[in-house]
Amino acid sequence: MFNFSQIKKDFPIFENNPSLVYLDSTATSLKPRPVIEKLVEYYSKYSANIFRGVYSLSEKATEEYEKTREKIAKFVNGKKEEIIFTRNTTESLNLLAYSLGRKIIEKNDEIVTTIMEHHSNFVPWQMLSQETGAILKVVNINQEGELDVYENKLKTQNSKLKTKTQNFESKKSLRLDNIITKKTKILALTYISNVLGTVNPIKEIVMVAKKINPKVIVIVDAAQAAPHKKIDVLDLGVDFLTFSSHKMLGPTGVGVLWGKYDLLCEMFPFNFGGEMIAEVFLDKTFFKDPPYKFEAGTPAIAEVIALSEAVSYLEKIGLEKIETYEKELVQLAYQRLKEEFGENIKILGEGNIRERSGILAFNFYNLHPHDVAQILSEKNICLRSGHHCAQPLHQFLAVSSSCRASFYLYNDKDDVEKLVEGLKEVRERFKI
Amino acid sequence: MSNIYTEIILDHYQHPRNFGEIKNPTKKVEVANPLCGDKIKMMIVFDKEKVTEVKFTGVGCAISTASASMLTEYIKGKTKEQLKKIDKNFIIKMLGVSLGVNRIKCALLSLEALKKLL
After folding, report:
1. pLDDT above 80 for A154
2. Which of A98, A104, A128, B99 has the greatest number of beta carbons closer than 10 A?
3. Is residue A320 packed enough to be buried (19+ CB in 10 Å), middle (13-18) or exposed (0-12)?
4. Do B5 and A430 make contact, defined as CB atoms within 8 angstroms?
5. Closest-CA residue in chain B for A395?
6. How far apart are CA B81 and CA B102, in angstroms?
7. Which DSSP state fits B28?
8. Does residue B75 form part of some domain?
9. Pick the CATH number of A45-316 from 1.10.1040.10, 3.30.70.20, 3.40.640.10, 3.40.50.720
10. Which residue ranges does chain A devote to CATH 3.40.640.10?
11. Are the beta carbons of A371 and B62 separated by less than 8 Å?
12. Which residues of A touch B (CB under 8 A)?
């Protein structure tokens, strides 16, 4: 078994903040030394623009940039020319809503998304459906915090939660009968909820959805999955997959969009400008083939190059090991929090505690998440408070906001204990 | 940031003054902080220029609740002219703690409500 206790040493931020308890990796991850060093390497050794120069520095930069594209392709089991670099997951999803959505969506078509989406995989589809007159269908969750796809029913946003037993009985077969229809053109959903930590059964969903309508295009937001889980786009059977560098130990400013090549060819370009054109005339322009068609302008060169080091780092440890380790940690955190605070700590989506990613969103007594997070911050414990860019989900759960602790490979049992101690202090300060 | 959860703030948070509804207010507003989904509803009764009654309801953190509680306590009996002078600095002084860039928004939610009532 990999020794996770040594990992903190690879992250210079802990040298500068020895008491740091970082529980906000769902928002962004910390960076290991090789990633930081790679950024410096680019800026100090070959900081030229890519593609344009014939001189050796530019060639070196281009080579490094393209090497990352290859590496990312392997990372998700796609092809090199199917990897597009964007700014972040949000931009990847907006690119799809724009370049794909505006190409294929017509009035009365159906777009399906879910209540557990981050705003970036919800609002673009809401806007697209409003512009085109398409119908936006939203899949709800059940009491366990799983997508409500285990029975033959699409419910409205206001419907009440079902009882546990009902759901349990119907859980065996995954049904999308009234959700996916012949009119459904796009199914956009998250791999892992950034609030509930629920891991959606993407492969099964794709299989069932495409059986009903082989033409449905499945778009997966893997922002919370790519850092923690081995991904194979071919095995999953999806059409598009998006994620962000900064959540998987890489630099900020880089997102990834993987898409099936023939679909990428059919799509509109996104931005117009440098690097994405083949030929420009006074009256017309020809565009390059994907992926370059979607990469107008000078990209975040250093950041893309350094992302390659993040992938190496994750692969060296092994994503399966990371996933297992995080699961153990989140179970421990759940157990310790429940031992200490019982019913006074309410975990969102508590029902799926055994099958969740390293995320625990909760409310503590009747305290406001801001106040909880503020007192914890005095002890250098970083966790998030608010709606985590998932307001429809919070509305559905009938809470205005929550605290969220998330665990990654550099967290350990001590961090869990410090969180427990920190929460005890919160309780004292509010004289509960 | 030093301790912002002083005795007085905790007291106003746990026992907010003027918390509740007024049946026939002269005016009523609702303001929200999109960052955390906090909402404050504030209602007021004027007798000509003077505030005779003010109440608030809503969900909020300690800072936004204490701020609304203390502010409503202050504005009772004041005239519109007097209330127009209330600004950000007044609220900070009233709370008596120093808040960071993010938390100051919580403190100013009740001020936003008041401005809309005038």
Report:
1. no
2. A128
3. exposed
4. yes
5. B37
6. 30
7. E
8. yes
9. 3.40.640.10
10. 45-316
11. yes
12. 367-371, 374-375, 378, 385-387, 391, 394, 400-401, 429-431
For A259-314, the pLDDT digits (tens) are 999 999 999 999 999 889 999 999 999 999 999 999 999 999 999 999 999 999 99
Would you call B36 and A400 a contact, using CB atoms and an 8 Å cutoff?
yes
**Least confident range of A92-96, A166-170, A264-268:** A166-170
Whole-structure pTM value: 0.91
* Comma-separated ranges of CATH 3.90.1150.10 domains in chain A: 4-23+318-427
Is residue A382 flagged as an active site residue?
A: no
- Of the candidates A270, A299, A296, the residue with the CA atom closest to the CA atom of residue A92: A270
Residues of B in Cβ contact (< 8 Å) with A370:
36, 61-63, 103, 106
The two three-digit tokens of residue A68, written as one number: 């990352």
Query: Does the residue B1 lie in any domain?
Result: no
Q: Could you tell me if B16 lies within 8 Å of chain A, comparing CB atoms?
A: no
B58 touches A at CB < 8 Å: no
Mean pLDDT along residues A95-110: 98
Say if residue A160's pLDDT is above 60.
no
Question: Can you tell me the ipTM of this complex?
Answer: 0.84
Please state, as a whole number, how many other Cβ atoms lie within 10 Å of the Cβ of residue A376. 25
| CATH number of the domain residue B89 falls in | 3.90.1010.10
Going by the DSSP 8-state scheme, the letter that residue A4 receives in this structure is: G
- What's the gap in Å between the CA of B97 and the closest CA on chain A? 14
Give a yes or no: residue B50 inside a domain.
yes
Mean pLDDT value across residues A124-137: 98
pLDDT digits (tens, 9 = 90+) for A37-84: 999 999 999 999 998 788 999 999 999 999 999 999 999 999 999 999
CATH of A4-23+318-427 given 3.20.20.300, 3.20.20.70, 3.90.1150.10, 2.40.30.170: 3.90.1150.10
Confidence of residue A151 (pLDDT cuts 50, 70, 90): low
Tens digits of residue pLDDT in A379-411: 999 999 988 899 899 989 988 899 999 999 999
Instruction: Say whether A135 sits in a helix, a strand or coil.
Output: strand
Domains contained in chain B, number: 1
Average pLDDT over residues A228-232: 97
Q: Give a yes or no: residue B2 inside a domain.
A: no
- Would you list the DSSP string of A253-269? T-EEEEE-HHHHHHSPP
User: CA separation (Å) from A327 to A172, A198, A355, B44, B50?
Assistant: 23, 12, 8, 52, 60
